[in-house]
Structure formats: C-alpha cells, structure tokens
Design brief:
Number of domains: 1
CATH class: Alpha Beta
Order of helices and strands: HEHEHEEHE
Largest sheet: 5 strands, antiparallel
Structural class: alpha+beta
Radius of gyration: 17 Å
CATH topology: Cyclic Phosphodiesterase, Chain: A
Number of strands: 5
Distance between the termini: 47 Å
Strand content: 15-25%
CATH architecture: Alpha-Beta Complex
CATH superfamily: Cyclic phosphodiesterase
Shape: globular
Helix content: 25-40%
Number of helices: 4
Length: 159
Amino acid sequence: MLNLNKLLSHRNKRPEGIQPNFFLAVRIHNPELHKKVDGIQHSIAKYDEKLTPTTISSEKLYVSLMVMRLENAEEIQREGKILHQCKTPVEAIAAKSAMTLRFSGRGHFGHQFLYAKPDVKETNFLESVEETVRKIFTIEGIPSTDSRVHTSLEHHENR
C-alpha cells in the first residue's frame, strides 16, 4: 500500500542535485493586480536600472503551484495526463471556495528570482489547490522538487 504521508513528508526538501525544469502554474488575469505589480517593478527599476530587463511582464504573471524535474518526452506526456486528472478535484475546490488571492511581502530564491508571497490569511483556496495537485502528481510518481507557492516578479540570470 502506498504511504502518502511518507511521500509528502519530504515535500519541503529538494532532492539533492535535482533541479526543476518544468513548473505548474495558474495565470493571473486581474488588471488591478497587474497595475500593482507594475508599480513594484517600476520602484525596483528606479532603485537600479540594470534590473529593468529582468522584470516579467505583468500580463504574464502566474502563481507557481509546483515545480518538477521531467527527464524526457514520455514524462512530459505523462505529466499532461496527470494534469488532466487534477481538473475535476480542482474544479470542486473552486466551486466551494472564494478564489481570492492576496499577497503580502516579497522573497527571493538564491537572489535570482524575486517573488510575491501569498498572504497567509488568504491562502485557503491556493493551499487547497496546491495540496490536491501535489498529492495527485506524487501518487502518480512525479513529486515536486520544491513546495514554495509563489508569484514570480523578476528573474535574474547568473552573471
């Protein structure tokens, strides 16, 4: 029998040496949020103009739910089928929950990705979706390599 708790217990730890190359995300379409992100990015650019090329267009904003390592075309195709399995449970969550997302604060991954942190008080919907998707992918043999749900604002390449 599959021990789901054991599989999920390591979800906060990235397996050594495994770098994600695919991510699962939800696009943000709210124009009000786009304007706020544009303002944040403008402030960052005023602080250091060299950072301007690293910004992500607000129209391309997304909330990352899961990152993973897929090695070949077969795994990519399998990921698509698993994603399809997530549709019904995620729709059920959306039907029961308000799809409100608020963000509070910023963070970074290795000084290369600047992201907005979801507000802890407003994450029930997001956490439910993330947990459901992660469970389904883990059961199907594609675990996440990280568990930090976030919204990317900038990406800095190693220079």
